[in-house]
Amino acid sequence: MPRFDVYANPIAADRKHTPFWLDVQADHLQTLATRVVLPLSRLSGAQPLKQRLNPVVEVEGTSVFADTANLATFPVALLRRPVGSLRHERMAIDDALDFLFSGY
Q: For residue 8, what is the enclosing H or E element?
């Protein structure tokens, strides 16, 4: 499970607003039973986005934003096959995580 892999949200009731999860956990922690995931939520215009905290990315033709303030852990066993990777967005995602944890 490489860092920055994207997974379809396995929780059916949440897929409408959060279709994907992004694995942001360090690769060297592969033996843990859980992964830290960042929700990738649909743009609706209802939520105020902060550019650094909530970068907008595209996954499978869908524009979503990184809902960085809602990080979660999820069991590895429930994360199926990745549907893509956001490694090319690494700088924006790491910047959002830095902003969340350190404020700059």
A: strand 5-8
